[in-house]
Batch of 3 targets.
Target 1
Amino acid sequence: MTSSTSSHTVLLIQATPRLDSRTWADYESVTDALDVICKMFEEFLSKKSAGTPITYDVSQVYEFLDKLSDISLMIFNRETGQYIGRTRAWIKQQVYEMMRGRCQHPEGGEKVIVGY
């Protein structure tokens, strides 16, 4: 993960091409923002799963992120006093690292099972 994991972070999302689908939220850390992104994906899956346990891997999270019209993070840099923009590709890499750290599967894969 990045060295600025405890920096104020603004999540910017545009879910569809419609401008009125733009939204933002701010978090105390990059980790908090990444957790919310993963929870959004899990909620998306839970709506499709009709109450059965959900199993997914990082490629499905990537697909979800790619279907959003836009997603980015603005992370506060304490040294410069400015926000640094992070792209969808950067977010995908950070989600991968977060999932890898949390969910090491014995065979080396990254699978997550969520029960709703």
Target 2
Amino acid sequence: MPSCDPGPGPACLPTKTFRSYLPRCHRTYSCVHCRAHLAKHDELISKSFQGSPGRAYLFNSAVNVGCGPAEQRLLLTGLHSVADIFCESCKTTLGWKYEQAFETSQKYKEGKYIIEMSHMVKDNGWD
């Protein structure tokens, strides 16, 4: 397995400053608009979700995202309390975070993140 050490010296520093950087040795998803890291592939739970513009992925965790206020929404799988999430760098709305699920079968989503495919790009080691 490759080392996660980014190497010595300032030549390895990114040109943009983000709140969090994911290790280079992990396959990652980044914001398509500003390339801020959003999630590691290892945190992907499901590719079978639907966002407003199309396909979306469910992640266990995300970085470089902010949350708006929680509100109740009737989604395809029932009533949920969700908060829109946005990129901390470019402020683009990316998807939402499940704050609360009201149906027992949907409780696994609580605390998880939906990121819409139209706002993500794959980075690091997808060859």
Target 3
Amino acid sequence: MDSVRLMASSHAIPMSERWSSPSTRIVKVNFDASLICLHHLLFSGMIIRDNEGEVLVAGCFSHSHVLDPFAAEALACHKALALAHDLSFKRIIVEEDSLWVIKKVETFSKDRSLIGMLIKDIKRKLKGHYSLLPIS
């Protein structure tokens, strides 16, 4: 079964202590977004590691016309899922630091927020290619 697990993480713990390895044959996608609100610019980085912590791929992207931090995190999540899908990773854990995005993705009701279509597409990507596992 293909699967994705969305997990929340805390910025208070240093990255070297916070990262935990996934099970065998599962890769972990970590990403974060930074928004320059005044200019509506998003910068995001992501890294995909195997169960031994070996970096399989890393990347970054920028995007203009991003209105708020919620949209920035949702867009970064969308880009991370797209990267994992494009590289044919089937069993992944997506580690996300925005509980707001996780809750939006996990809810069954239609999202009528400004980023509702983006959340809908994230859900479609998860449903079409992976199963969403509960947060551990």
